[in-house]
Amino acid sequence: MKMAKCVVWDLDDTLWRGTLSAGDDIVVEPQIIETVKTLDERGILQSIASKNNHDDAMRKLEEFGMAEYFLHPQINWNSKSSSLTALQAKLNIGLDTFVFIDDQEFERDEVTFVHPDVETIDAADRFLLTTLPRLSPAHVTEDARRRRLAYQEAERRDRSELEFQGPHDEFLRSLGMVLTISRAGGDDLLRLEELTHRTSQLNSTGIHYSYDELEKLLDDPGHDLWVCELRDRYGSYGKIGMALVEKSGGQWTIALLLMSCRTVSKGVGTVLLQFLIQRAEAHGTRLLARFRRTDRNRQMLLTYQLANFHVVSRDGADHLFENDLSIVRAYPDHVKVNVDA
């Protein structure tokens, strides 16, 4: 079962009782407000797909003190499926991680027809949302609790970039980014487990690790478990990357490398890999990397290839790469890298 990442609400007779455009007395039930807040605290994103006048609906959400909980609300007269398409592009998460809730069977069927991977729910079941397994993570990390805030900070960054007069590299330097790479500790394990489940594009194998598995690796002298956190002048992106390295004699093998897709546009998606290359070269050890091709991680394949990794062996979707360490690049100059080894 894939955990859901975003709940998309209809408004009329779903999030609230009544039809706004008909002039009804609009009421939001206290249990719905609690549901929205609970999903937010669990790290589940939320948005709106509603056929309504945008400004009127937003004023009503502001009136109820709920507007801040919804990212990129799609309030227009377009089809609900097109609203979901727009949200998928803005949030950059898979459609199979969306849950759409609407009181109209026609709207749910239209979304299912266009986006069969999206789970649809009748608004009659709206009070049950917090009990659904896909919306009930076993553990909630601090990064998860502030996930919506991270997206809102990213939106402010994007607006600043649009307003910035000058080259993209200068804008990146203006962010004052600091990437801290450190050995993982016990407090990181819940977040690392979450990363292995949620990160698919910049993920070298797509293999999921449980908390218990990571805990064993943490205490194993034959493995290094690295984690990295990114901050800039807008706030923290949280723990956005990890690497698991197997050590055997004079050989290191990157068993898993992943970075949040949020790092790509900031030009730091390759820094953790550069760190591992630099470290292997400094220790005079052979550096290998495992890669398993999935339907979503072509970007990670290109990352390895551009970092001078070459195929040693291949078995179906599984590749073994090696870097001869003849090219050891410096970190990009728009990000300060702190290493706590």
Provide a compact summary of the structure.
By secondary structure, the protein is an alpha/beta fold. Helices cover 33% and strands 26% of the residues. The protein has 2 domains: 6-135, HAD superfamily/HAD-like (Rossmann fold, 3-Layer(aba) Sandwich); 146-340, Aminopeptidase, CATH 3.40.630.
Sheet/helix structural class: alpha/beta
Helix content: 25-40%
Bin the strand percentage. Answer: 25-35%
- CATH class of the largest domain, anyone? Alpha Beta
CATH superfamily of the largest domain: Gcn5-related N-acetyltransferase (GNAT)
Q: How are the strands of the largest sheet arranged? A: 11-12-10-9-8-7-6-13
Any guess at the CATH architecture of the largest domain? Answer: 3-Layer(aba) Sandwich
How much is the radius of gyration in Å? Answer: 22 Å
Query: Total domains, how many?
Result: 2
**Given the structure, what is the number of helices?**
11
- What value does the average pLDDT take? 93
Q: CATH fold name of the largest domain, please?
A: Aminopeptidase
Order of helices and strands: EHEHEHEHEHHHEHHEEEHEHEEE
Shape: elongated
Distance between the termini: 36 Å
What does this structure look like?
This protein is an alpha/beta fold and 341 residues long. The protein has two domains: 130 residues, Rossmann fold (3-Layer(aba) Sandwich); 195 residues, Gcn5-related N-acetyltransferase (GNAT) (Aminopeptidase, 3-Layer(aba) Sandwich). The protein is built from eleven helices and 13 strands. An eight-stranded mixed sheet has the order 11-12-10-9-8-7-6-13, sandwiched between helices. A five-stranded parallel sheet has the order 3-2-1-4-5, sandwiched between helices. α10 links the parallel β9 and β10. The longest helix has 17 residues. It is elongated, with a radius of gyration of 22 Å.
